[in-house]
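Example record

One chain of 106 residues, shown exactly as stored in the release files.
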Amino acid sequence: MIYEKAGRINEAISEYKKALAINPRHAGIHSNLGAFYTKKGRLDEAIAAYKKALAINPTLSYAHQNLSATYYLNGNYRLAIAHCNKAIEFGGSVNPKLLKLLKPYR
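Predicted structure tokens for this chain:
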């Protein structure tokens, strides 16, 4: 997170990969890695990271929300809506901006 605050996203990605080498079953690390990939515009890698997080913990609401936003950016509105709904189902709050962006596709 320190690397992120310093704008050093590549170093943050590298450290998260090291953390996953130690503990590959940590859903939060996969989800955070997905967020960094999204920031870098590496959407396919972000989607893969979020999917890994959700394979470990299918009820991780913030991973569903982040996956929803990434699918939206990737133009897959159907899956964006599905994961937005999952985030809500599992008790997460969804960014109002994302809800507004998805509204025309519902």
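Notes: The two ends are 35 Å apart (CA to CA).
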